[in-house]
Amino acid sequence: MAVDEDAAFILPRGATGFVRPKDGPLPETDGRTFRAALYAAARAAGGQVGEMEEQTYPRTFHTASVVEGTGECVVLCHAHHPWIAFAQERRDWYTEEFLAPPPWAHIFTDLGFVVLDRAQLRLSLSDVDTSVLTQGEWRAVRVYGITTLGGVLFNAWD
Question: What is the pTM of this model?
Answer without folding.
Answer: 0.92
